[in-house]
Amino acid sequence: xxxxxxxxxxxxxxxxxxxxxxxxxxxxxxxxxxxxxxxxxxxxxxxxxxxxxxxxxxxxxxxxxxxxxxxxxxxxxxxxxxxxxxxxxxxxxxxxxxxxxxxxxxxxxxxxxxxxxxxxxxxxxxxxxxxxxxxxxxxxxxxxxxxxxxxxxxxxxxxxxxxxxxxxxxxxxxxxxxxxxxxxxxxxxxxxxxxxxxxxxxxxxxxxxxxxxxxxxxxxxxxxxxxxxxxxxxxxxxxxxxxxxxxxxxxxxxxxxxxxxxxxxxxxxxxxxxxxxxxxxxxxxxxxxxxxxxxxxxxxxxxxxxxxxxxxxxxxxxxxxxxxxxxxxxxxxxxxxxxxxxxxxxxxxxxxxxxxxxxxxxxxxxxxxxxxxxxxxxxxxxxxxxxxxxxxxxxxxxxxxxxxxxxxxxxxxxxxxxxxxxxxxxxxxxxxxxxxxxxxxxxxxxxxxxxxxxxxxxxxxxxxxxxxxxxxxxxxxxxxxxxxxxxxxxxxxxxxxx
Length: 498
Prior knowledge:
There is one protein chain. α4 crosses α5, α5 packs across α6 and α9 packs antiparallel against α16. The strands form 6 sheets. Strands 1-5-4-6-3-12-11-13 form an 8-stranded mixed beta sheet. Helix content is 30%, strand content 25%. It is an alpha+beta fold. β4 and β5 form a beta hairpin. The two termini are 19 Å apart.
């Protein structure tokens, strides 16, 4: 396993308030004769929106696995030099935003662990809800093996991904496929995973299919990715989604699969609203079209007389287009986004930091001044960003500011792979819509209804997890979640096991 740079995390200049901090992207490819590391690099590049903290690629040539990972964006972590060392016929990759375990180099993925079947490397998108129980089981297995005189590596990372890798590696079965199935049945929560040994590529999805995972076909191989945009960039033809509760194996004989758990589909509604790339498809539905429909529905539910509709770029743009089309109010680009904010290793000075949101967005006064403005965003979490935007628009001369949100109020945390704030930090959990309006300083505030959001997707309500809006979790969550993503670090510290 290789490590680039100094492994330190350099924080983004401005963290998005709008939608937690996103999640993770996974990619896998089996393509003998191809430059699998470069295919994986570009696949991760297309999935960069899903996680910007760290990136990694593992390749296998039939005899060994080599990994390179580091903190930062995909384009910061990899150069031609690093990619040239990653050779083989199959690869997996990961871009991370931490939901279990701190943002450190040790927690970057893919993971790597020795097993009875050879080396094992894994990348994961999601979040398990029974991590403490699984960690205890793995610790017991490790101690048993050590007591028997075996050399077994202790845990180095503090992620649920590391726990999954360790359990599969130490499961006593005749082959890795049987071990994986046995471990999958123990997992609770959301997980879309790709993993590999030296010769085969594997993928699996939880029975609810909360996080997306799709399969594509290359001329000489197969690709698995978090989103269809990850297939498009490498020229893979979309075949189908990995089904909830499905386990697939890809090797020299092609692809085969088995259903290891009865599916009960509960895909994440927030993938459509914010998380997925607009050019991706989920359940055969184009994400961009859904977001435009969300805006149109929002205009029907919360009409207002105004001079211009402007988006909070980029995630609010499709909904703003839909709102403008449905309302007949002209669309304008009233906020200019600096596309490079958060992609620098230079920290802002105190003076610059005090400018806050202006690091990322700046109003176009010519569009705003003297106008009644509808400003469309995808969500409100804590309210800090919207408060700053309203203030900026006032300073730019807006006559009135009407905030429209293309998601229902976010009132509950997500425990399935999005690092939302705790419920105490969620503004909609404590305040009414009228109180939020006053808090952010808007003249009016309107959220799309839950029913309207579902209708915009054209999919059945029963097929969604919308717990962050309703509090109705499809999977039981632990009562005591006060330790959040640092749970395993606290446990390790208490046991003196780093």
